[in-house]
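[Q] Does anyone have a clean C-alpha cell version of this?
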Amino acid sequence: MFAGGDLQKMLQQAQQMQADMMQAQAELAESEVTASAGGGLVSATVTGDGELKGVKIDPKAVDPEDVETLEDLILAAVQAANADAKRLAAEKMGPLGDALGGMSGGLGLPGM
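[A] Here you go.
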C-alpha cells in the first residue's frame, strides 16, 4: 500500500509534528497573560496553558459591605485571563493542529 520511502517520510513528518507540538506546549506553559476587570481594580494572571498564577486586588475594590462585587470582579478577571490564554494557545498550536487535521486523535500525540 505504501512504498517504504513514503512510509518512512510520513513517520518522520509525524515525529517532527510531535516535537513541534511539545515545544509549543512548553512555550505555552512558560507564557503568562494578564487581564483585568472593574477598570483595573482586579487583575488575574494565568499561564498560556490555563494555570492561575496570581490575582491582584486594588484596595479601592475592597468594601466589607459589598463582597459580592469583589467576587464578581475576581471571577471576571480570571475568566478574561483564561480567554486570553486560550487565544494564545490557539495562535501557538493552530498551525500544528491544522497540519494534523482530523488525524490527531489516532496519532496518540500528547495534548491532542
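[Q] Thanks! Anything notable?
[A] The longest strand covers residues 32-37.
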